[in-house]
Amino acid sequence: MKIEISRKSDDEALAFAEASRRAMARLMAVAGHDLKQPLQVAMLSITRAVGQGVTPAAGGRLRIALDALRRATAACIRDHGSGGLRSAASRC
Question: What's the pLDDT score for residue 25?
């Protein structure tokens, strides 16, 4: 049994795949931007709390959290650019 696929259907499938890829890229760019905003707010809040004088133990834990947030944000920007995230969105 021989199955023939027309060239037109190949072109249509390729166009559909490319349109899907572009749509996903736009979605990930928006999602990346939306995810970065709360992280930036959290970092600013932690910095302010540490600056306003919390207990030494709390300050130490907050500094650890702030460092982790900074590293995570930097890794997302490094890996995915400032325009957003790709399919590895769960890591960011």
Answer: 83
In angstroms, the CA 76 to CA 72 distance is: 6
pTM: 0.48
Helices (H), the chain: 7-51, 56-80
Q: Quote the tokens at residue 28.
A: 């990930």
* Per-domain boundaries in the chain: 7-91
The rounded distance, in Å, linking the Cα atoms of 30 and 19 is 17
Q: Is the predicted pLDDT of residue 5 greater than 80, yes or no? A: no
Model pLDDT for residues 42-72, shown as the tens digit of each residue: 888 888 888 888 888 898 999 899 898 888 8
CA dist 80 and 30 (Å) reads 12
